[in-house]
């Protein structure tokens, strides 16, 4: 089979048009979950089928694509999706955040600030933030339409009553433009502030759940909290072991079976760029 | 004096079967009305139609709203009706599991209605929850426990606290003491009486237990086959029933 | 205060072949403030029935029963409830209470319903319970487990907690010892002195003679029974 056997970016043009309509509707109503006719993709659910369809619908031959998985360009999921689009769309790819025009991400927002003209595509497992407490889809839709969001705070209340603080560390619920409560996908809450007032277009695709939602550039996004327990964007209290960065989100890496561990930037591009510029952490070789 | 609730010609059919037919009455502030009748007499259908859980085929349910005075809750917009359901109305289910979130702590259950109307201060929400647990005789140390760890009577009392925390004016109760053993029932009845008196609540209580209405209700409506066959002062209806069905109902109760 | 005008009462037993029992035919009487009237007549003459009709407990077929201007026969349930709360007291022969409610609260409840402050209501309840010789260690307990005589005295204390302008007393001195009987009669005299209109049933003739100003034989209202 040759690569020409595929339409550009795998999906047929009608499907891409259908997805673009859903994206446009999502951009018109920031934070609102737009249903779409999700297609079977040549990868299992949970591997980014929603994000891949959104990327396929927005890619043009001139685009340069970056794919990250938990911040890394070199993990299986990122490598597979990148090569999928190399083959089916023939687009250029990059690991540099600044050089990419479309970035598909699983569970992170890059450290380097995004700019106007870039599109960030999130892979979303469960788009419905209210599902934790209200399993009926008919009811959660009604709650969104009537802005009945008391339940969302019940979840945070439960956190505080059990842990003494809001223990939700990822997929931390947000309110978009003081209207829709939205699940930002399982990004760490460290990334939540970057959702707001971002110059890039942010698109969210949930393949199994058949939902697309979006944040147009410069959208106001507030993380839910209590007056006496305000939102805090937290991270591990260490510098990066490789590049010494103190302001980036860190992964904990176990290095041996004797309790050895190190903290490194989860954003590999960010870390590499800093190391290339001569920054060194305490664990750097 | 304006009735708090004014029901006019309320009718609900299930196909050819009559759920409840042409029910009308006025309920005034502070009044507690009982609705009795055997299973299938239409009392729960009537309650659910009044509380907005079922759409009636005909009739009006006019509630004296705080903001705009008397309004028909059947024809008002759904957001408005749901808002009533979170603020001025309360609904106590027979089975506490239907009225509680079993996966959420007691404090979260009580606090939900507060958060639903905009409370955003954790400490204050929690203090109010603890205060209400005390009022329904649940120890403050249980505030973080889930209702699954509570006894049936405690669950029912928690459901009542969860409903009353926003200071509603009208409470619908569907067999509130059903399924509880006798001593627990007595405690719950006593509690409800005190709350009704101290908060000046109006309530509509559906039950098949005549002892419950005698203790709680000022007024009584007797239903049979979807129709109201007799209505009046509770002790008058029970002690001097006029309708044959009520006479049968009253004489069928085992005397202790 | 209490004016009864030409009232009738029948019971229709729908489940016993629709039998109609006439109990009272055109009864009339009136009681002025400060006056105590005894209902007399043989057992079954309808004394208790008349009393219950006045209280609104039994339905009256025709006529009028006016208490302080409210006609019980045509009043809405809420008007009767308000009347019972504020104007018309009733001491029945049986104590009916919610189980597990302490005796002190049972006695104070009529005042609490009138939104009397708790301390004041409880003070009045303590006073009455003490006068009626209910031992103080019983006050925090529910009266459901008390002896018949104790229950009757709790019932009387409850009935006299609020100073009702009109009162109905059904055998208030029955099953009481001499000392407590004396307390109850004093309570009745005090009520009369403050202007209460009272209708009572007393089998105790000496008591009747002491507190009642008039006697009305209920048999005169009883329709002749068809054989």
- Portion in helices of chain C: 25-40%
Morphology of chain B: globular
Q: Which structural class best describes the helix and strand composition of chain C?
A: alpha/beta
Fold-level CATH name of chain C: Rossmann fold
Main pleated sheet of chain B: 6 strands, mixed
Quickly give the structural class of chain B: alpha/beta
**Distance between the ends of chain B:** 41 Å
Poorly predicted runs of chain B? none
The H/E string of chain C reads EEEHEEHEHHHEHEHE
CATH class of chain C: Alpha Beta
The largest chain-to-chain contact, stated as pair and per-chain residue counts, equals: B-C, 25 and 21 residues
Rg of chain C: 18 Å
- Give a short account of the largest sheet of chain C: 5 strands, parallel
What's the helix count of chain B?
A: 10
Q: Report how far apart the termini of chain C are.
A: 38 Å
Q: How many whole angstroms does the radius of gyration of chain B measure?
A: 18 Å
Q: Give the strand line-up of the largest sheet of chain C.
A: 6-7-8-3-9
Continuous helix count of chain C: 7
- In the CATH hierarchy, the architecture of chain C is 3-Layer(aba) Sandwich
List keywords for this structure.
heterotrimer; B: 256 residues; alpha/beta; six-stranded mixed β-sheet; four-stranded antiparallel β-sheet; 10 strands; 38% helix; C: 227 residues; Rossmann fold; 7 helices; 36% helix; 25% strand
Summarize the structure.
The complex is a heterotrimer of chains A (285), B (256) and C (227). Chain B has 256 residues and is α/β, with parallel strands linked by helices. Helices cover 38% and strands 25% of the residues of chain B.
Describe the structure.
The complex is a heterotrimer of chains A (about 280), B (about 260) and C (about 230). Chain A is of the alpha/beta class and about 280 residues long. Helices cover about 25% and strands about 20% of the residues of chain A. Chain A has two domains: about 15-225, Rossmann fold (3-Layer(aba) Sandwich), CATH 3.40.50; about 235-285, no CATH class. Chain A has helices spanning about 15-30, 50-60, 75-90, 135-145, 150-165, 190-195, 270-275, and strands spanning about 35, 65-70, 90-95, 100-105, 120-125, 175, 180, 200-205, 210-215, 220-225, 250-255, 260-265. In chain A, strands 1-9-8-5-4-2-3 form a seven-stranded mixed β-sheet. In chain A, strand 6 (about 175) and strand 7 (about 180) form a beta hairpin. Chain A is globular, with a radius of gyration of 19 Å. The model of chain A has no long low-confidence stretch (mean pLDDT about 95). With about 260 residues, chain B is α/β, with parallel strands linked by helices. In chain B, strands 6-7-8-3-9-10 form a six-stranded mixed β-sheet, with helices on both faces. Chain B has a four-stranded antiparallel β-sheet with strand order 2-1-4-5, covered by helices on one side. In chain B, strand 1 (about 5-15) and strand 2 form a beta hairpin. Chain B is globular, with a radius of gyration of 18 Å. Chain B starts with a strand and ends in a 5-residue tail after the last helix. The model of chain B has no long low-confidence stretch (mean pLDDT about 90). Chain C is built from seven helices and nine strands, in the order E-E-E-H-E-E-H-E-H-H-H-E-H-E-H-E. In chain C, a hairpin with a 2-residue loop joins strand 4 (about 60-65) and strand 5 (about 70). In chain C, helix 3 crosses helix 4, helix 3 packs parallel to helix 5 and helix 4 (about 120-130) crosses helix 5 (about 150-160). The termini of chain C are far apart. The mean pLDDT of chain C is about 90. The chains are: A alpha/beta (about 280), B alpha/beta (about 260), C alpha/beta (about 230).
